[in-house]
Specification:
Number of helices: 25
Strand order of the largest sheet: 13-16-15-14-17-23-19-24-22
Largest sheet: 9 strands, mixed
Shape: elongated
Number of strands: 25
Strand content: 5-15%
Helix content: 40-55%
Distance between the termini: 93 Å
């Protein structure tokens, strides 16, 4: 009844406003259009400068009146729309309690207003929560460990960023692996008004390692219990999320629920939607103690300041110790302990409406949390089956999840207007560098690419490798795009050692790659391959950036700088490790050259020895690499000498030399100014020579280039004159930089270029 009265008062107020405001406005405008007791025309003719009555001040007054008039008309239209909506909704207020199937158990401590919110729907004004201030920072804590959880966190963060209108501060409790992955990701993502802090999860293990836990989350599944101790002491409140959460609304709406907490309520939780804590799932099922159905801890609102004052640490520890005497271990990690504490202290919990945590495990009551899928706020994939869970709306949920999974993260770099971002040194330096470029330069796009920050996700798949203890280990380094995925299995069969790959993909392509890799027995059997995703941005293929990313993340003392289109000879990995020792690579600046050959046949009986390769060369089945189109690139290798060589031999640098080499991991990076096709490897070999590396050809090593369709970049190089002009300009600038950096010795590169 009270709600009906309030609705009538709102209706009456809106009606009076719609009728009264226009009248007052027009009286004001009519009175304002008189000057000295005479009406002033607002017509264009009268307002011309040649009119005797024209003055600058009167013109400004008339313009301000016209602006105000338009503003009032807009306000009136909005009020009329609001009134019509209120009229169309008014009948539902009389029947709301019967039109929904939400559980009426929700809303402990504030049940009347909470139930009103549930009945009226998620967007109802009656259940509207207090507004969050425009630039108020929302704090979110997430526990994340390992490679798979790091991927899940990205999808969660995308869904939050997509809807958010407030600055965000993520507190990530992460192990060393997740920290490395996510620190690089957020640093290269450069999302405005987002701050990231990391807390070492490994340091917290001792806090919870005494609790036996059967849940698949392991020891990390218990770490939400120690957040009051882990997070900064001046942090008063935080939203805690599992990694398998997807947001379908602005997280500020959830943050606003803190204002509803009363008395000693310090935990905001959604009721568990399965029968787990009722203890009737199977015979002799004995769950931890819980209040009713218990609560799910996938989404938690924590009032940290009050929890600390209540001595939360002592509270949960005593409860856990007592219950473990009979339960022996937890089955649902921290959730069991949270529920045991709440069972003893029910006043601690504020029950959230269940649409804040729609739990998609099998046999749950999640369908009672919404009448329509548009009512959803938060989806929780809290089953080990994840996307294969049973639910009649699972296709909708899956599509929503996949939308964020494949959503272009670069689009989430948008500014929050009106909210000043914290000063970011990297962002400031980037803006400074870009501002120094001439946008009228015909090569502007080439120059700009050098400074583009590409979002990077390291170790996209599980990686596990310990380098050999004899310090001879070698990592194969390469880069690729989506059209070269078919080469991965073949390379893995030819090279048994560690591999570091940088893949240039869109968000959607990254998921296609994930499905491809997970469906490949060859790739899944290899844990020593590091896949680093560099997300697409701009119009050029950043080939040298990709190489640098792959080079930077190797764990061995040496690396073989290859390309994805080449298959190394069988046994090359072990041969290179022996060569490293033989040629004392650890104490000398050498670049070991692996001679490159090519075939024009898509099906090749790969030579198993040097003798077999020489026979195929003689028969015309194989050729020295680029012999027909770019002889200078590999001619200094001296293939004639290689045919009969039995020991390594030294060769000298020549113009346009671009061999594939084995070097120490501390060798210089590739120059990022070269993108797409042309001079990307040539420049790197030139710099190795400038740093006095000795080029040594290995007599019993070889690699073979497999045929493929021309890349998009080589097509642009061949067809676009401006592309070739810009590449020539970049080459000249690189040579000038070399001369400035290396002095007199680098003058030979200018001479060699002029003579070539």
């Amino acid at each position: 009844m009270l709600g009906i009265c309030r609705g009538r008062r709102k209706f009456l107020a809106a009606s009076v406003t719609v009728l009264f405001v226009p009248a007052i406005t027009w009286i004001y405008l009519f009175a304002g259009s008189f000057e000295d007791g005479k009406p002033v025309s607002l017509s264009p003719v009268e307002s011309q400068p040649h009119s005797p009555r024209y003055t600058a001040s009167s013109q400004r007054e008339r313009e301000s009146l016209e602006v105000r008039m338009r503003e009032v008309e807009e306000e009136n239209r909005a009020l009329r729309k609001q009134l019509s909506l209120a009229q169309s909704r008014s009948p539902s207020h009389h029947h709301g309690n019967h039109s929904k199937t939400y559980s009426m158990e929700e809303g402990t401590g504030d049940s009347e207003s909470l139930r009103a919110g549930i009945v009226a729907g998620n967007s109802s004004e009656c259940g509207q929560q207090p507004a969050v201030e425009k630039c108020e920072t929302i704090h979110v804590a997430i526990v994340c460990a390992g490679y798979n959880a790091s991927r899940d966190v990205v999808t969660l963060v995308k869904s939050v960023l997509f809807h958010r209108r407030n600055p965000l501060h993520f507190h990530l409790i992460a192990d060393a692996i997740a920290k490395q992955i996510l620190a690089t990701l957020f640093q290269t993502w450069m999302v405005p008004a987002v701050r990231i802090d990391f807390y070492d999860a490994d340091e917290l293990k001792s806090e919870v390692s005494w609790i036996p836990n059967k849940h698949y989350s392991g020891i990390y599944g218990l770490m939400k219990l120690v957040l009051t101790k882990t997070l900064p002491s001046n942090l008063e409140r935080v939203i805690v999320l599992d990694t398998d959460i997807t947001f379908a609304t602005d997280i500020a709406e959830l943050w606003a629920v803190f204002h509803k907490f009363k008395g000693q309520q310090v935990l905001g939780l959604v009721e568990n939607q399965s029968d787990w804590y009722l203890g009737n799932l199977w015979k002799n099922h004995r769950p931890w103690p819980a209040l009713g159905r218990g609560y799910n801890t996938g989404v938690i609102l924590l009032l940290l300041d009050k929890l600390r004052k209540m001595k939360w640490e002592q509270m949960w520890r005593l409860t856990a110790e007592r219950e473990l005497m009979s339960m022996l271990s937890t089955s649902l990690a921290d959730q069991d302990i949270f529920n045991a504490v709440i069972k003893q202290n029910p006043f601690l919990v504020y029950q959230l409406p269940c649409f804040w945590n729609v739990q998609l495990s099998d046999h749950t009551r999640s369908e009672q949390c919404y009448r329509d899928v548009s009512d959803l706020k938060v989806i929780h994939w809290n089953s080990p089956k994840k996307l294969r869970v049973k639910n009649k709306h699972v296709e909708f949920f899956r599509n929503l999840y996949l939308t964020f999974l494949e959503y272009d993260g670069n689009l989430l770099r948008r500014e929050l207007f009106g909210c000043p971002s914290e000063t970011d040194v990297n962002s400031e330096n980037l803006q400074k560098q870009l501002s120094e470029l001439d946008e009228d330069d015909l090569c502007y796009e080439f120059r700009r690419e050098r400074f583009t920050v590409h979002r990077t996700h390291l170790y996209f798949l599980h990686y596990e490798y310990e380098p050999a203890s004899d310090n001879t280990d070698v990592t194969l380094v390469a880069q690729l795009s989506m059209d070269r995925l078919q080469m991965l299995e073949a390379i893995c069969k030819h090279w048994e050692g560690p591999i570091s790959l940088a893949l240039y993909l869109s968000d959607a392509e990254a998921q296609q790659f994930l499905r491809y890799a997970q469906g490949s027995e060859v790739l899944m059997s290899r844990h020593n391959v590091g896949y680093h995703i560099v997300y697409k941005e701009g119009q050029f293929y950043p080939v040298n950036l990709l190489r640098n990313v792959a080079m930077k993340h190797i764990s061995t003392p040496y690396m073989f700088l290859s390309d994805i289109d080449f298959l190394p000879m069988y046994g090359l990995y072990e041969y290179l490790r022996k060569s490293v020792i033989q040629l004392d690579l650890a104490n000398t600046k050498k670049a070991l050259i692996v001679p490159a050959f090519e075939t024009l046949r898509y099906r090749l009986s790969f030579p198993k020895s040097k003798a077999e390769l020489l026979s195929m060369l003689d028969m015309g089945t194989l050729f020295t690499f680029r012999y027909h189109v770019w002889t200078k690139g590999h001619a200094p290798t001296n293939f004639a000498k290689w045919r009969t060589a039995t020991t390594p031999y030294r060769v000298e640098w020549e113009a346009d030399f671009e061999p594939y080499v084995v070097v120490r991991k501390d060798c210089p990076e590739y120059d990022r100014r070269f993108v797409g096709f042309g001079w990307n490897k040539v420049a790197h070999i030139m710099e190795l020579d400038a740093q006095e590396y000795e080029f040594t050809v290995l007599p019993n090593a070889y690699m073979i280039h497999m045929p493929h369709a021309p890349s998009f970049d080589i097509t642009k190089f061949r067809s676009n004159k401006q592309y070739r002009i810009c590449l020539k300009t970049l080459k000249e600038e690189f040579q000038q930089d070399m001369s400035r950096h290396y002095g007199f010795a680098a003058l030979k590169y200018l001479t060699a270029e002029n003579n070539s």
